[in-house]
# Entry
Amino acid sequence: MSASPRIALVTGGLGGIGRAICMRLAADGCRVIAADLARDPARLETDRDPPAPQVETLALDVGDFDACAAAVADIEARHGRLDILVNAAGITRDATLRKMTRAQWDEVLHIDLGSVFNLCRHAVEGMATRGFGRIVNISSVSGQTGNFGQTNYAAAKAGLHGFTMSLAREVAAKGVTVNSLSPGYVATPMTAAMPPEVLARTVASVPVGRVGQPDDIARAVAFLAADDAGYITGVNLPVNGGLFMSF
# Structure
């Protein structure tokens, strides 16, 4: 860690996984900005006093290119720099392709893939100029294996790693690493809402015998975002309990 705290921006920062990432980075000494869409102003207000004092919240529509530019500029103006960017925002609009609407396709690609362009496009220049940066893009095991009813989501998450590898090549010599991380099934409100029999089948399919916890993902993000992880770039790190193994 540098003498002064690293400045980290985490999109989707008020969600289950995003919040765990924020708390872990804060525990590691970072100053963290948790960005999320303020669909419910009361929700954002509730999170303005998070457990870690070094975490602040930011209302941000990650699908808005200009809003992302303004957010990065504001962070750099107030904190002097942006060192770590974690793109964890994402949505699902599941349907089989035969029933999927154009809107369901467009919405998922726009947020799950387009938002990563929006943030990286504005953050990477300052990182490269300063000679340090860590970008971690949250992909999914669905982007590696495909998943029934998720052609839009799987396409976005697979595309995310292609984006990651390409950007990693562009900025590696500038001290900036770019990696993706692919969670498997993680204990979030979405998995908690699954019918018990479906959840049981899911757990049975995971070799370690359980779904992941948000902290499992947060620990892996912190590893990739560390100062001494500078020789790791362009990789996709699976964190899935052995659900999908590849060479």
The longest helix spans residues 102-130. The chain has a mean pLDDT of 93.
